[in-house]
Specification:
With about 280 residues, the protein is of the alpha/beta class. The protein is about 35% helix and about 20% strand. It has one domain: TIM Barrel (Alpha-Beta Barrel).
Length: about 280
């Protein structure tokens, strides 16, 4: 087995076809599905999901992951900050959450995705912030996913409660036996100052999927996204460590480069093929 590249078609827009065609042109055989046709994938009806699956099948592409927004939410009375949830509501009443979890697993089965991303509750007002550790819905979701043959992977997201290595390890150690793994976003780890060799080694045993994006800091604060390998995220250190621990990982290109996404994805793919020891398929 070798590491593989994954491309998300919605980086090129709401129509999944241009992104799928770019994947074919770049020799990338795997897709990550997050949104399509102007809607979050969880909000799409079955017939549209089957259509997306058919478009992928026609091109010889497989869906490697469903990038769901599960747990990127808060209670209706809370005040979330600026959150990119790709068309999914950030305020979700607790009584509606199980329905969204079941919908995500059903959507993954239609698309043929073996893994589904989850988050860890949005950080909001101190008295209203919920915690993932001990959330009974997480255990329920893991059991439901296991029955469906699907694995849930937790992304380290700075706007959510579990972004630093210490709480990540605590959650993963508790729920790994139930199947929870890590959807590692290296740039997010760098954003919180923890994309270090020691942290990556500690997390590596849990990693099931890797998000690859890059950025440059701008004067006065803030950042601008750029093709992978051209920014400040220390992939030169991180990728060999991940490869040594897990030689066959999926690496998903997530550029967020708005003006020239196709060029950024192409450049990122070339970088990853040169930077991952042994290359990527």
């Amino acid at each position: 087995m070798v590491s593989t590249l994954v491309l998300n078609p919605d980086e090129l827009g709401p129509d999944p076809v241009p992104g799928m065609d770019l994947a074919v042109a770049l020799g990338i055989g795997h897709l990550e599905i997050r949104s399509a046709e102007g809607a979050n994938v969880l909000a799409l009806p079955d017939d549209r999901l089957k259509h997306i699956r058919a478009l992928a099948d026609e091109r010889g592409l497989t869906v490697a992951a469903l990038a769901s927004p599960l747990w990127k939410w808060c209670r209706p009375e809370a005040t979330p900050g600026r959150v990119d949830s790709f068309g999914f509501p950030t305020r979700v009443p607790p009584q509606e959450r199980l329905g969204w979890i079941e919908r995500a697993i059903a959507a993954a089965r239609i698309l043929g995705a073996p893994v589904v991303r989850v988050f860890s509750h949005l950080r909001v007002e101190p008295g209203l912030t919920e915690q993932l550790l001990g959330d009974p819905l997480l255990s329920m979701a893991l059991d439901t996913a296991n029955i469906a043959g699907i694995r849930l992977l937790l992304e380290n997201e700075p706007v959510c409660t579990v972004a630093h290595a210490e709480p990540l390890l605590e959650v993963l150690e508790r729920y790994h036996g139930q199947g929870l793994g890590l959807w590692l976003d290296v740039a997010n780890l760098h954003e919180v100052g923890q994309a270090t060799p020691a942290t990556v080694r500690a997390l590596a045993r849990y990693v099931g999927y890797v998000h690859v994006k890059d950025y440059r800091p701008v004067p006065g604060g803030g950042r601008v996204f750029c093709p992978a390998g051209t920014g400040c995220v220390p992939y030169g250190e991180v990728l060999p460590l991940l490869h040594a621990a897990c030689p066959a990982l999926p690496y998903a290109l997530e550029t967020h480069v708005r003006d020239t996404p196709a060029d950024a994805l192409s450049e990122g793919a070339a970088f990853m093929r040169s930077a991952v020891p042994g290359g990527v398929a």
